[in-house]
Amino acid sequence: MIFNTNARRSFTFALIVVVVVALLSCGKKNNSPQEQANKGRQDVGAQEMITEKEAPAAVTEVADGNEEDEEEVDDEKLKDCPLKLNNPESMTIDGVTEITKKLIELELVNVTQEDAYFKSVRSSCGCLEIVDAVEPQVIKPGGKITAKVMLHGSSFTQSGTYSRALFVECRGCRELSIPVKIIATCLVSVEPSPRINLGTFEGADVNWVRQVTIKILDLDNKPDIELKLPKENKRFQFNLVREEGKNAYRFEIRPKLPMPVGRIMEMIFIPVTGIGENNGVKLAITGDVTGMKLNLSTDRLWLQERDLLEKKTAEVSFLVERAADSGKKTDQVAMFTRGIRTRLPSQQEKAKAFVEQGGNLIHEEEEAVHAQGGRKTWEKLAKTLKLVVPEWIQATPEPQDKGVLYKLVVSDEILKQPNRRVLLTLQNGNQPLRKVELRVMTKQDD
Q1: What is the pLDDT of residues 261-277, one digit of tens each?
Q2: How many domains does the chain have?
Q3: What pTM did the predictor assign?
Q4: For site-directed labelling of 40, which of 21, 131, 249, 400 has its Cα 20 to 30 A away?
């Protein structure tokens, strides 16, 4: 009984608390609409008073450009810019060089019957610098303003036509985009092209040369322009000669033989003085160096058993020669450098190289030189080639016009070898190129 009485009292007390809280909440909700209505009427009245007092100033002054306080407006609801360009012909600028600095004036006129609230002019590129910036202001119908822009020609390092833009901003309107057409002519140009494609070639022993002509534009008030010889690198050596009586230089490129095997992708920078700091001529050189591909006249040498039994020695020979450039893949073909195979240049590569170089491919020059024979090349190559043989074999290299002839004198010791055979290794330095099998011919082999 005591337990039930206490529980009933607690429940009653909690119920009373809930009812009181509910009544207080209802009282607040009933009063809030009236209070909000009164407060709203006060805010509207105050806003109307402020608007009436500040209206005259809003007509003659423009916001200070602080866009953080302005509300975002849908572009579709904005009006077209009331200002129009009065001198569009001045937006096409011809004869721009690296040293050009030209002042451009934008004459903007209000073509509407309403006031235009001008804010600013900005450019799409650092080559168009806004100078003497026009302050934000109100432009009456028919009124004009002039904005000044400085064009810097140092941004245009290649001849061609460039498109830039200026943007005029007015409050509450879309931006007015003014296209600027710039026709640039470089003071220094490269002929036939600044891109030199060497194609695919061996780069082993033919001392070819490639050259371009670097011309200087002939202007009345041009500065003293001078080219400087760039530094040599691991692949090329350079020569720069000024042509007499002409505003031009001849730039020559020669290889450092033998050239490193691999893809050539180099940018050669020729410093030029007189047209600003860090300016110069850039030449892009591309190509593929494969190294000389070698072939053996045979990869198996046979010895006569009768000679070994009667004379105690036998003689054989084989020729190391330049592989025919047929593009065939065969296990009898080895490379002079790094074992990389020669790839014939495609017709597209040939056409591109002929157009850009105005002459033969290096690959074709190498073919012509080797077709005439080159004992000096093989004498030099014989010093780097090495045939690894046992003690009882004497190997003698003899350079020829078309290759290196290896003469072998083999003792009868070979008869004691397993299967009466031995493998010889041809190396370029320490790099293995090819295996040659030396074997005694038996009646069964006959």
Answers
A1: 889 999 999 998 877 66
A2: 3
A3: 0.58
A4: 21
